[in-house]
Design goal:
mainly alpha, 511 residues, hpI Integrase, Chain A, 3 domains, two-stranded antiparallel ribbon, elongated, 6 strands
C-alpha cells in the first residue's frame, strides 16, 4: 500500500465541528457532547459569537488559535460563572452540582484538541469547586424492582427490567443484538455452552459493547432469559420474521421498528418507576432522587453479588468485578488473572437465587435445588450401603473358611505323626508329652478362632445397624420437599421450554 502526494489531506481543511464529531467514537457520547456544545456556543456565548451552530464553532476555534489569552480568559470566566451557580442553595432553580462542572468543559476540550488549539487545562480545572456535596444514593431493592414489574405494559418492559437487574449493565450496554446472548446449560452437574445436551438453562452470557475495546461478558438469570424469549415472540410478530444474530434486541414501538435508543429505554424505565410510585417527592434526596433511575439496578447487582459471595475466595470477587466491566480489584488483575466465560458463569450461578426477583420463581428454583440435593444424597447413601454390604459378605466368607479349619490343625499333626513309619521309635514319654502339647495347641487355636469369630460378629452387627440407620434416614427424605406446594408436585410449574436453540440466534426456532 502506498500513499500518493495528492491523497494527503490537510487536517485543518475540514470544518471544526466535523473534526469534533470524528473524535468521538460512541454515538451516545457524541450526541451528548454536541448538545452541550450547542448550548454553550449558542446560548451561553450568544453575545460573544455570531451565526449558526457550525459558524460559531468555527469562530470559537479560530479565535482560540489566534489569541490563546482570549481563550483562557473565556474559559476562566465560564468557570467563575458556573461556580456562582454551585454556591446557590440546593433547592434553588439555578443550582448546579459541582460534579456536573466537567460536563460543560469536556465538549469544549474535545473541540479545541481536535482542531489543534492548545489550552492549559490544569489551570482551568484548578478553578473548579470542591466536590463536597455528593449525594448519598443507593441501589434499588428487590421489593422495589418487583413493584416495577407489576407496572409493565408489554413484554419489552419486563425483559428490560429483568435484564438490568440481573446483569448490572449500564444503559449503554443495552445496545444488544440477539447474537450477543449465549445460554449456559447445566448438564450432569457441569456447565456448558453446548445446546445439544438438553440441559436446563443455568444462566445467559451477555456480550456487552461487542466490537469495542470495552467489550466484556455479563450474565443474566434464567428468569430474565424467559422474559427475553417472551419478548422475542412480539419482536418476531412486529418484524414478521425470526430474529437473526445481528438484529437488535430492543426496538422502538414506532410504525417502522428500529433499534431503540438509550433515551427511549430510559423513558420506559422512568414510566414504570413513576407508575410504581418510586419517582415522587418522598423518594427525593434534596434536588435529586435517592435512587438513580438506571444506575440503581447496577448498584443492586453489585451489592447482591458481594453479599452472596462474601464468604467465597478473592477470585470470586475479582470475577464479580469482571461481570460489571471493571478491571478487577486492582488494575493488574486483567493482565494476570485470566478467567474463562464458564468459570465466571460458575460464580454467577451461585448468585442466581438472590438476583431472581419473582418470589414464586425463586421458590421453584429453591425446590429444584432441594430435590437435586436430596437425589444426590440418596445416591451417595445407596452407594455407601452397597460398599458396607459387600464388606459384610467378605467378612462372612472369611469366617466360613476359619470355621472349616477350626481345631483341625493340631489333630492333623498328631495323627500324621502316629501314622508315620518312624513313629514306632518314639519313646512313650516323649509321645505323651508331644500329645499333651498338641492338645494345648489345639485348645489355644480354638480360643483364637472363637475370639476372631466374636470380633467379626461384633463388626457385622455394627455394620448392619449403620445400614439400618442410613435406610431409615433416607426414607425420611424421599418425600416432596417441605413447602414445595403444587409447583414441586407438577415438576416446577410452568417450566415451558424457552431455550434459544434455533434457527433464531442459536438453532431451533425459540418462538
Amino acid at each position: 500500500m502506498k500513499l500518493a502526494k495528492d491523497e494527503i489531506a490537510r487536517s485543518g481543511s475540514a470544518p471544526p465541528l466535523r473534526l469534533f464529531e470524528q473524535g468521538i467514537r460512541a454515538e451516545a457520547t457524541r450526541a451528548k457532547y454536541t448538545a452541550t456544545l450547542r448550548r454553550i456556543l449558542c446560548d451561553i456565548l450568544e453575545e460573544v459569537l455570531e451565526g449558526d451552530f457550525e459558524a460559531r464553532a468555527a469562530q470559537f476555534v479560530e479565535r482560540g488559535r489566534d489569541d490563546p489569552k482570549w481563550m483562557m480568559d473565556l474559559l476562566l470566566s465560564l468557570s467563575w460563572k458556573l461556580r456562582g451557580r454551585a454556591e446557590l442553595p440546593r433547592g434553588h432553580v439555578e443550582y448546579l452540582n459541582p460534579t456536573s462542572f466537567k460536563t460543560y468543559f469536556k465538549p469544549i476540550r474535545k473541540l479545541l484538541e481536535m482542531n489543534d488549539v492548545t489550552v492549559n487545562w490544569r489551570r482551568v480545572y484548578a478553578t473548579f469547586p470542591e466536590r463536597d456535596n455528593v449525594l448519598d444514593t443507593r441501589g434499588w431493592t428487590r421489593q422495589e424492582i418487583a413493584v416495577m414489574l407489576g407496572h409493565t405494559r408489554d413484554p419489552m418492559d419486563r425483559a428490560l427490567i429483568l435484564l438490568l437487574a440481573s446483569s448490572g449493565v449500564r444503559l449503554g450496554g443495552l445496545d444488544l443484538n440477539w447474537g450477543d446472548l449465549t445460554p449456559v446449560y447445566m448438564e450432569g452437574g457441569s456447565l456448558t455452552a453446548d445446546p445439544g445436551g438438553g440441559g436446563e438453562v443455568a444462566c445467559v452470557a451477555v456480550s456487552v459493547y461487542t466490537g469495542s475495546p470495552e467489550r466484556y461478558t455479563a450474565f443474566a438469570t434464567p428468569e430474565a432469559h424467559r422474559a427475553i424469549i417472551q419478548y422475542g415472540r412480539t419482536w418476531a410478530e412486529a418484524m414478521m420474521r425470526q430474529p437473526g444474530p445481528k438484529d437488535p434486541i430492543f426496538l422502538t414501538n414506532k410504525t417502522v421498528p428500529r433499534r431503540a435508543s438509550e433515551q427511549a429505554m430510559a423513558k420506559r424505565v422512568h414510566r414504570m418507576a413513576a407508575r410504581a410510585g418510586l419517582r415522587n417527592k418522598d423518594s427525593k434526596n434534596g434536588p435529586r432522587f435517592e435512587t438513580q433511575l438506571v444506575h440503581g439496578f447496577r448498584k443492586f447487582f453489585n451489592k447482591t453479588c458481594k453479599e452472596t459471595l462474601s464468604g467465597d475466595s478473592l477470585a470470586s470477587l475479582i470475577r464479580t468485578e469482571y461481570m460489571m466491566g471493571h478491571v478487577g480489584l486492582v488494575s493488574l488483575d486483567q493482565s494476570y488473572f485470566k478467567t474463562s466465560m464458564l468459570e465466571m458463569a460458575a460464580e454467577y450461578v451461585k448468585v442466581v437465587p438472590s438476583l431472581t426477583i419473582d418470589d414464586s420463581e425463586r421458590l421453584r428454583r429453591s425446590n429444584r435445588v432441594m430435590a437435586e440435593n436430596i437425589r444426590r444424597t440418596e445416591d451417595a447413601k445407596d452407594a455407601k450401603i452397597g460398599q458396607l454390604e459387600g464388606h459384610i459378605q467378605r467378612m462372612e466368607e472369611k469366617m466360613a473358611k476359619i470355621g472349616d479349619r477350626g481345631g483341625s490343625t493340631a489333630d492333623e499333626i498328631l495323627d500324621a505323626l502316629l501314622k508315620s513309619p518312624k513313629s514306632g521309635g518314639v519313646p512313650g514319654d516323649v509321645m505323651e508329652a508331644f500329645t499333651g502339647m498338641m492338645e494345648q495347641l489345639g485348645a489355644a487355636q480354638e480360643n483364637t478362632i472363637r475370639e476372631m469369630k466374636d470380633e467379626y460378629d461384633a463388626k457385622i452387627n455394627r455394620l448392619v445397624r449403620t445400614i439400618e440407620q442410613m435406610a431409615k434416614g433416607g426414607n425420611a427424605g424421599r418425600g416432596p420437599p417441605a413447602g414445595s406446594g403444587d409447583d414441586a408436585a407438577d415438576g416446577g410449574g410452568d417450566t415451558e421450554d424457552l431455550d434459544m436453540r434455533g434457527p433464531g440466534p442459536h438453532g431451533r426456532d425459540p418462538f
